[in-house]
Structure of MICA1 monooxygenase:
Amino acid sequence: YPTWKRTLARRARECQMKRFCRAQAIQRRLEEIEVTFRELEQQGIKLEKLLRDENESPADQQTQWTNQLLYLVQKKNNLMTEESDLMIAVQELKLEEQQCQLDEKLRSYMNKEDTLKTPEDEKAEQEILKQLVEVVNKRNVLIQLQEEKRLSEL
């Protein structure tokens, strides 16, 4: 088993572990965001009830409650933006995993000597190459989407 094959296999495993760790971190953050959404929702409900029920309370108290409510809305919008960014990252991770699997398959076909390849092998190699290009294009679209989003936020 040549050294370069072992090195490629080790690097593929390392990349897979990095993707797995990133996916776990994203999942944890999405769960945290969900919990925070619920907390913000409860706080917002309380503030709305205070604003509706306490018509005779001082104006500065109502202003303070309104400001708190607006702050909660802003915080929720920021979390929604972060959540959408994380969802894009999840899609990107999936495409990255697909790309690695296709790379591995393609490499196995390309390492085969041309004289030993059957027409089916060549057809499969072309199909994998086509799929690989599609995955790379999808990843490119996601990256462009993130860049446009980042520029629009600025």
